[in-house]
Specification:
Layout: H1 6-16, E1 21-22, H2 23-32, H3 39-48, E2 52-54, E3 59-62, H4 63-67, E4 72-74, H5 78-83, E5 85-86, E6 106-109, E7 112-113, E8 116-122, H6 123-128, H7 138-143, E9 163-170, H8 172-175, E10 184-191, E11 196-202, H9 213-236, H10 242-252, H11 254-257, H12 265-271, E12 275-280, E13 283-288, H13 301-306, H14 318-332, H15 338-345, H16 354-374, H17 377-406, H18 416-438, H19 440-445, H20 447-473
Parallel strand pairs: 6-11
Antiparallel strand pairs: 1-3, 2-3, 4-10, 5-9, 6-7, 8-9, 10-11, 12-13
Helix pairs in contact: 2-3, 14-15, 14-16, 14-17, 14-18, 17-18, 17-20, 18-20
Amino acid sequence: MKFTDIEEASIKFLRNRLEPFTAEDFRKFLKSYKMKLSVEEVEDILYAADWIFSLKGGYFISRAGAFTNQWFSFKPTKEEVEAGAFVPGHRFIPFIDASIFPYQATVVFEERPVPVTSIDISSNLALDLHAYFGEGYDIPYILNDPANSAVSISSVQYGLPSFMTLTAFSLQPFVEKGFQLGDRLLCRVTNWDLSIIEARIVKNTRTGFKMSREDLEREEWYEHFEEALVTRMDRWGPMGSIEDQLSLLFLEEQRTLCTENCGSIEDFLEHTSKIDIVNFGVESRIWKSGETIPYKGPWNEAELKENPIPSIKYMFTDYIIDSYIKDNLFKNGADANVDEITARLLPPNLQMGSFEKKFIMLNLEKRIDIVKNDYNRFNDFPVADLRRKILNLFFTISSLLLDIGYCNCQMEDFPQHELIVLVQIFEHVARYLSQIEESPSAAADEKNDILASLDGMLETYDSVAPPLQAVIKKNKKFEIKLP
């Protein structure tokens, strides 16, 4: 086998390696294909990869290694059984590749692929089946389903239609083998790289108060799932997403959770009183019922002591700097105005020493020359106005986050919900800029949806900014450490 570059070889290794490995193992793999990297360079690749968990003792394991042949289950709902198919939704989380849509997986039953179809289901059920993608992401997942292509994000600003058409996997092969309402599908990923999932039927043997051995083991599974979640929340915090929460939980608890008599997350959340999906800013997380997730907790206390607004690091990432440069080039043509770019890149309230500013300016001038050489104003036209609108909001939020970071007060003094929301929309806006840089054609195709989302973010900013600004006005400022 030949690889054209390090990225291609890395992807092949990291998406298919099933055993734990070290950075040195990975380096030797690359070296075998005449790709020479230092251990430090290899570690940089590993820590940046989405498909890797870091283990103790310098070991790593891929998601393929963590989740291949690990059991999970779910029960199709009455609405799905009556429609003759099940919607995958979030049910394969966290076991399959998070970068694909669930309907892109292949489900196999008795060594044959299960036919893919589409069904009409109520919008309430559609939302329930996509809840683990998190608030703010569930609807885009639903609307990006090809079976639902007639409905766009911009058209559902005030609510979803009563019914949605979604891609689904047929239940007919299972019904022919005795599947009926109340039965569950026991699944495991047999090829993580290709997203192939084997499914089996588990008959419902529970009648009244009579429980089989399998039912008792499943009840114990729910108890352990609850205990494992509760004990980890103060250590992990809300993490980056529900998918992140579940990934780490199933990684650490494989022996007790990934069993043939496992329960399902859906059933667990329906019956527990201790755990729920709760709002976390404009997103959602699995958390303790009735509790609000704070901005600061045991999980990030040390980090916030060093830098109260870690997300401010986005201000000086390459794609943000390039975005400001291209915005200026589009406005002024071939002659980039360094002063204008600097004024946008460095907000007036940014506290920075002369040495740091000089360093940034020198690098900025070099970067302008590099970007200018490859810049094509005609090709940039489809996304230029979109980029400018996003940058305007990014600059506005950056300025407020700096004021919060400089404020002579504790993070707990700010209204927590508004602070979390501000940080989240800042990160969302940064991701849009990254998308334009990485794939401008895709961003141009999604322009109307991005603009609709941007309008929502601006409206959200206008609602959360005043309470935060009120706290700032009551306090003096101190210097914040820049990343």
